[in-house]
Amino acid sequence: ELQQKGEEAELLRMELQMLETERVRLSLVEEKLLDVLQLLQQLRDLNISKRALGKILLSTLESCCAPHPGKAQLFEVLDTLQQELAACELLHQEPVERGQSPQSLSNPLVISC
Q: What is the mean pLDDT of the chain?
């Protein structure tokens, strides 16, 4: 009976470790998604065209093609999209257009995982 309890405890420890690993993975995905959404908001504020956003998205999807999609590939797509958006030239230009006030274009939430 003690051996059975020990085996059950070990199984519970392994399950807890798997849950913790999944929690960390989800936390990283959440942070990356927040980065992407912030960059999209900044680009929207700069009136980037839908065509330009579409090109960024298609470029991201093409660069992340994998024969066996899964969780790792989905995170890779999200990470690549964040990098593509952060590299967008509009985010690095000085906002000098008429009628616009200068905006802070730095991205304090860029996180590489």
A: 81
Give the pLDDT band of residue 23 (cuts 50, 70, 90).
Answer: very high
Q: How far apart are CA 86 and CA 82, in angstroms?
A: 6
Number of domains in the chain: 1
Domain assignment of residue 10, given as a range: 1-64
What is the Cα–Cα distance from 113 to 108, expressed in whole angstroms?
15
Query: Residue 42 and residue 46: Cα distance in Å, rounded?
Result: 6
DSSP characters for 28-85? HHHHHHHHHHHHHHHHHHTT--HHHHHHHHHHHHHHT--SS--HHHHHHHHHHHHHHH
